[in-house]
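Dear colleague,

Following up on yesterday's call, I've attached the two folding results inline so they're easy to grep. Please treat them as preliminary; we haven't cross-checked anything against experimental data yet. The first protein's sequence and structure tokens come first.
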Amino acid sequence: MALEVGTNSYISVADATIYFEDRLYSDAWTSATDTTRAQALIMATKRIDRVPVIGRKADSAQALSFPRAYAREATPIQNNVDYSYDLVPNYAAELATPRPILEAVCEEALALLDRGSSARTKLQQQGVTSASVVGISESYALGSGRGLLSQDARDLMTPYRAGAVPIC
């Protein structure tokens, strides 16, 4: 299936490439083909959409989780997003996918390209907590390898995640 913004990806290959122009250590992106980049964005979008988030879809017919509608007091970010108010009483609906979500998809796509199929990642996803090879050993934290690969993507998603609390 080809990448289709709003259906299976939050961001196009062209827009993601613009994002990566200013990002240090994005060699895995720049060395990938457009087909592989599109696959990474589609897979990253699926992974982002598996993160439990607050609110609900802005339109019940939309394919992806964002844009969202929030109870006014639960709106996670007040700036950089345009809202339409009172579609449902006391709810604010995003008119577009917020920039942090687009950036999280880019960061997760980069992580997938860089280390998504590494032996370490596979061991962590299988629940292995310790591995040794020829005198070298590693221990993994419980739960590592689950969820998003990119710490940057996790950080960008924090205000939107269910159970997340902003720290003032």
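Below is the second protein, in the same order (sequence, then structure):
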Amino acid sequence: MAHAGGTFLVARNPDPDSSLPYLLRLPIDGGIELKARAPWPATARVYCHPVDDWPTGAETLEEVPVRHCGRRGKAIDLTLDRARNNRSQFIFTEPHTGRPSGRQMIFWQTARTVRRARPGQRAPTRRAPGPRTLTIEVDSRERYPYKFAGRDVECRRSALPCGDYAVRLGDRVLAAVERKTLEDYIHSIVDGSLPFALSELATLPSAIVVVEARYSQLLNAPRVQPGWLAELTARLHVRYPNVPTVFCDSRKLAEDFAHRFLAAAVAEQGA
């Protein structure tokens, strides 16, 4: 759940023997309190650790109003109400498989420190994150479905409650993808069926609509006033903000994105 308002607190850790000399308090989940190696991830990621009890006598160094603080899977996004050093993210990671069981590791980072850690990184061509073999359910009414060829995917046909492709956690649908050709997207937005589909998708933890076309093609659609379909699309984004629409240029790219979205949902939320 996202939180607006509140303050982000930075204090000095009064424990002289601690290797984490700073304290942080995030205004989410009743107040998450951490020890940190630095007061801000200026040049590198900052290691953090949960605080059992906020120590007495901790000197407050900074208290900044918060514009946004919300969870996204295993991450917490933090946006502060100031001009500089205002956007950061806390990543909660588990110990690697095969290592002795240990405490959860927390890293505080910004976009700048991520770029420095992985300079010149390109989009990966390896398999998407998540289980080695991803089981994707394909709606039984889907004609000419994606085959996800060349990927570690097992496809199963079933009658999905919403969407065309989905992944499950037990009996619960974890995420779904609604696939649209450009013609199908235009038809469903004009006849009013798309909002009903979005309302069902919005009940899921994660959902998305992928369109096998470019956004510019929507603007140039025949027999409608220029911009009208774009306006309807924008309204649906506002009405259903947790079900975005992605224009993926072609069927091939839409299939690739659908696979990566479903795999990411399992990796982020299926643990």
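For the second protein, one point worth flagging: The longest helix spans residues 251-269.

Best wishes,
A.L.
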